[in-house]
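Field reference: sequence -> structure
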Amino acid sequence: MNDKMELLIYINGEFYPESEAKISVFDHGLLYGDGVFEGIRAYDGRIFKLDEHINRLYESAKTVGIEIPLSKEEFKKAIIEVLKRNNLRNAYIRPIVTRGVGRLGLDPRHCQKPTIIIIPQKLEEYPLTKATGKAIRAIVSSIRRTPPFCLPPMVKSLNYLNNVLAKLEAINAGVDEAIMLDWMGYVCEGTGDNVFIVKNGVLITPPTYASILPGITRQTIIEIAKRLKIEVVERNITIHELYNADEVFLTATGIEIVPVIEIDGRKIGKGEPGPISMKIKEEFDKEVRSTGTPIYNV
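Structure field:
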């Protein structure tokens, strides 16, 4: 047991302190990245967009042929129970479903039952949340996003190796993030986030039919922008447009909304967070703290 108070981790219906939370070395999630996951946030005692995250988790699992042995309602109750047991009101939550324990070899029939893990994290201990709102610098990565004819981009799978390699490029370049292109050379995503640009007052983002994950924060940003009467266009974006945008920002559950002020050494806009992205962030902050699934009956 560590000196600090350990959080409790859910594994297959049981709760374990962090130092005791373990899975088999024969779990196919470890051996082959064979599984799916979500990233969810809780704000002020409410879980933001819980239904949407659970629906996406089950869709990802269905596409890769994993049958989750819990109903959606049971899974949501398990997430709420994790937060209750850890007395958390503000948290990052990582639900994971792997193919399960099996023999060596790719054959999924070796795995009899999926492994279900729910990891809660205090926001101050989750690295990505520390970047929220902070203006960052980025590069365009040489690593391409997995094309849709290899793996559907809608699947949030445990295999993130190309994203990790892109992140390594950013680290080696001394910047905060890498922006990945799709197989055709269009702007795709960050290493774990969706990309938006602003040009002449119009908000532009890559379409969901491209090689991007249909982010839940991304969709929330689109809805907010439309409420603010900001024109939203979903279309392919070139590197030229990225460099010459008035504003660029990234969105994801962990980072929320992060302005990008430099890409490949080129200043974006005025080299500071832009007015449209900051207005959207202001509305986003209001929404996440006023909606969501209650954790506690208060």
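Note: The longest helix spans residues 50-63.
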